[in-house]
Structures are given as structure tokens and as C-alpha cells.
């Protein structure tokens, strides 16, 4: 039987003597998503001269409505990967089903209308293509419900 009294009276030295407890906790804001690419990823220069790949991922959830559509959330993603990983990402077509592991952060900025806005931005850690889009349609008529995706804000911060 566990004795709470015995545990509660343990010396503080015993509780704080674990080596991993001496370092401060790191902040953690990560997301894992499975969704479809809203458009082909784009290679963009940054203000520091590095290149990044940016793309939008649409994640549909919930039940379909009367018109057969499901609610979709759109996420802007930046990737600073290089080499074969970047080449693979850039080769993926619109509509590709993608698993994403990313760091998340909220950025605040002044919009064109002068009002302060906040936006969630994701920085890719890892990704894995799960499937290519179906061959039923191509281009703007893709099977992905990405037609209404607001691409204007991708990478804006």
C-alpha cells in the first residue's frame, strides 16, 4: 500500500537530486498535421539571403455538409530544409496528402488596414508524402477543396 505521508515527508534533497531537473524547461509549441497541399510549394528568398520553401496545407475535419464539403482549416508552412528533402518537397503537386511535423508560433504584425493582426505560422521539422492526388482532375479543378484557400497570407509576418 502506498503511503502518501511517507512520500510527503521525504527530504527536499531527495526530490531535487535528479540531474535532468536542474535545467530550465524549453518552450514547446509543435503541431502534427495530415492534410493536402493547396498549391505546389514555392522556393522563396528570405531577407537574410537564405532560401525557404513555403506552402499551404489544408486539413479537413468533421462530417460533410449537405453539399458534400467538410470544414477545412488552412495552415501556412515554411521549410528551411536543404538537399534531397527540399527537392522532394518542391516536386510535390497540388493535392498531395502530406504528414507534417512542425514548430508553431504566433506572429503579430500590422495589416494593410493599420490594425494589429496575429497569425499562426508553422516551420517544418519533418514531412512525409502519403499519397499523390487522384487523377480525376488537374490544375485549378483539382479534387482538393483548395479553390477558396487564401494564399495571399502565406509567409506574411
Automatic annotation (TrEMBL):
UniProtKB keywords: DNA-binding
Region of interest called Disordered, as start-end residue ranges on this chain: 126-157
Pfam families linked to this entry: SSB
GO MF assignments: single-stranded DNA binding
SUPFAM superfamilies tied to this protein: Nucleic acid-binding proteins
Superkingdom of the source species: Eukaryota
Record's protein name: SsDNA binding protein
Native source species: Cryomyces minteri
Amino acid at each position: 500500500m502506498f503511503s502518501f505521508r511517507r512520500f510527503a515527508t521525504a527530504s527536499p534533497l531527495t526530490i531535487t537530486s535528479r540531474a535532468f531537473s536542474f535545467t530550465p524547461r524549453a518552450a514547446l509549441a509543435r503541431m502534427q498535421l495530415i492534410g493536402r497541399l493547396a498549391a505546389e510549394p514555392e522556393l522563396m528568398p528570405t531577407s537574410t539571403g537564405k532560401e525557404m520553401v513555403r506552402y499551404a496545407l489544408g486539413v479537413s475535419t468533421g462530417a460533410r455538409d449537405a453539399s458534400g464539403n467538410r470544414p477545412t482549416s488552412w495552415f501556412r508552412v515554411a521549410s528551411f530544409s536543404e538537399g534531397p528533402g527540399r527537392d522532394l518537397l518542391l516536386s510535390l503537386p497540388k493535392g498531395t496528402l502530406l504528414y507534417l511535423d512542425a514548430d508553431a508560433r504566433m506572429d503579430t504584425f500590422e495589416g494593410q488596414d493599420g490594425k494589429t493582426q496575429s497569425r499562426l505560422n508553422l516551420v517544418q521539422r519533418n514531412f512525409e508524402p502519403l499519397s499523390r492526388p487522384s487523377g480525376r482532375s488537374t490544375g485549378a479543378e483539382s479534387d482538393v477543396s483548395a479553390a477558396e484557400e487564401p494564399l495571399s497570407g502565406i509567409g506574411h509576418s
